[in-house]
Structures are given as C-alpha cells and as structure tokens.
From TrEMBL:
Gene3D superfamilies per UniProt: Clavaminate synthase-like (3.60.130.10)
Cofactor: Fe(2+)
Domain TauD/TfdA-like: 32-267
Positions of transmembrane segments: none
The protein, known as: TauD/TfdA-like domain-containing protein
Classification via PANTHER family: GAMMA-BUTYROBETAINE HYDROXYLASE-RELATED, TYROSINE ISONITRILE DESATURASE
Length: 270
C-alpha cells in the first residue's frame, strides 16, 4: 500500500504497461530542473520507471547539481555522466549497436545505485530499435512457484569479465536479495555474454545447486525475466528523460540499425 502522503507526492501522468508512468510536461519551456526531486524519486520508486517527455534536458553541470539533491552520485573514471554513443572500435558492447543483455547497475561496485537517469540527447529513427528494456524482477520472483524460489534462494552466481570499460573483475552475488527500501525480494542476475557474440564477454559460474539444477536456474531466469508480462520496453524519442529503479528491475537494450548517432547520457544515484 502506498501511504496517502506519498500518493500526494507522486507526479501525475499516464500509466504504462505493464509498469511505469509517463509524465508529459504541463507547459512549454519547463526543464527537468522544474520537477521537484523528491516527487521524481517517489514516483520512480512507486512506478519503477518514470518517463518525462517534453521537459528540456539539462547540461552536464546542471544535471549533476539536480541529481546531487537526490543523493550521492556514482563516480567513475569518466566522472558521473556516462555518454552512451557508438564508438568506431569499441572494446565493450555498451558502445556498439548490438543488444545489451539484462543486468543491474552496480554489480561491480561496493554499492549499487538506487536510481539511474537517462537523458536521450539523440534517439534512433522510428522502427530502428535501440529500446531500453526493463524487467520487473520483484514481480518475476513473486509469481514464481515455491520450488523454484527455493532453488534460487540456494544459488549464488560468480561473474567474471575483463576490465575493458569502466567495470570488470570477478564478483559473486546471491540470485536473491532484499530490496533495501521496500523489503521485497528481488532478483540480481546478469545474463551471460557469449564470447562468440559479444565484445567484453561475461562468464558465469553457478554455485549452490547441482549441475542439472544450475542449468534449470539459468533457463528459468532467462525465460521468466524476458516474459513480456514483466517487461516494459522504452522506445526512445529525442528529449526523453527516463528514471529507473535499479533494485527492483533488471535492464538491457535491444539492438538498433540505421543511423549510429544514438546518444544517451546516464547518471546513477546511490
Ligand atoms: Fe546498465
């Protein structure tokens, strides 16, 4: 139950399916800076994905200042804002036009961000793909049969990837975790990246269950996380701002074709 005071604080808009909320700017000339940050966060926590459309984008210092009011920012070697663009000779699949399998942000850091925000500086042509896909891991867990939940509860996955972008190394994470704000059980899982198909491959070792059960763990996760009943696909329009709740969701990207001018900016709030 959302408490009444929180409901009051939520931004009004249109509900997206199967989750998410779209908020159109109520007047021309408004920017993200006109959205009270506590309402932005409360709406995102409730809807899991918040799409703001028609609000002007902020430049880098303004975006940092706005998000700093929401919480501590993740800092990387490039700073706080990652420019997702297609590079000529990328070492990592984030910087080409292929798909990005499901993962959560912060798997390689001590702390995972609570929220991340994208500004779409330049979207893809209509029909060219490049959608960001969000899977509601809390709902996938909630709807799974008890025997499968028990199996997931006994499973830890070790991930290994080379440090070719801003992350990498070896990390282990239990498949299930408690959402730090809502207390719900959520799934933390990053899909494997086959070296034959992806730059910067990601290797998984499943620990806990038997080897047959390990195969079942991965097959069930792959099938259930991609079930359209749990996935919101955001087709980007230039100028969109999307805020996502990192702990409840996994996310990835569809491949895109045509122009390679797609440009997104991402900032993460702890
Ligand atoms: Fe990500």
């Amino acid at each position: 139950m959302v408490n009444p005071r929180l409901r009051e604080a939520l931004l009004e808009g249109t509900d997206l399916a199967p989750f998410g909320r779209l908020v159109d700017a109520p007047a021309e000339g408004m920017t993200l800076a006109d959205v009270p940050v506590e309402r932005l966060l409360a709406t995102t926590l409730s809807a899991k994905v918040l799409v703001l459309r028609g609000y002007g984008l902020l430049d880098v210092p303004e975006l940092e200042r706005y998000c700093e009011a929401a919480g501590e920012l993740m800092r990387w070697e490039f700073g706080t804002i990652l420019d997702l663009v297609v590079q000529d000779d990328p070492k990592n699949y984030l910087f080409d036009s292929g798909d990005v399998p499901f993962h959560w942000d912060g798997a390689w850091s001590e702390r995972a961000p609570r929220f991340f925000l994208f500004q779409c500086v330049q979207g893809c042509d209509p029909g060219a793909g490049g959608e960001t896909v969000f899977s509601d891991a809390t709902a996938v867990y909630r709807d799974a049969p008890p025997a499968l939940r028990d199996l997931w509860a006994r499973t830890t996955v070790t991930y290994r990837t080379d440090h070719l972008a801003h992350y990498g190394g070896t990390m282990s994470h239990p498949v299930l975790a408690e959402h730090p704000t809502t207390g719900e059980t959520t799934i933390r899982y990053a899909e494997p990246l086959d070296p034959a198909q992806y730059r910067n491959p990601l290797f998984l070792t499943v620990e806990g269950p038997s080897s047959e059960e390990a195969v079942q763990v991965m097959a069930e996760l792959s099938e259930r996380l991609h079930d359209p009943r749990y996935c919101y696909e955001h087709a980007w329009r230039t100028g969109d701002i999307v805020v996502a709740e990192n702990h409840a969701l996994l996310h990835g990207r569809n491949r895109f074709t045509g122009s390679t001018n797609r440009h997104m900016q991402r900032i993460q709030i702890i």
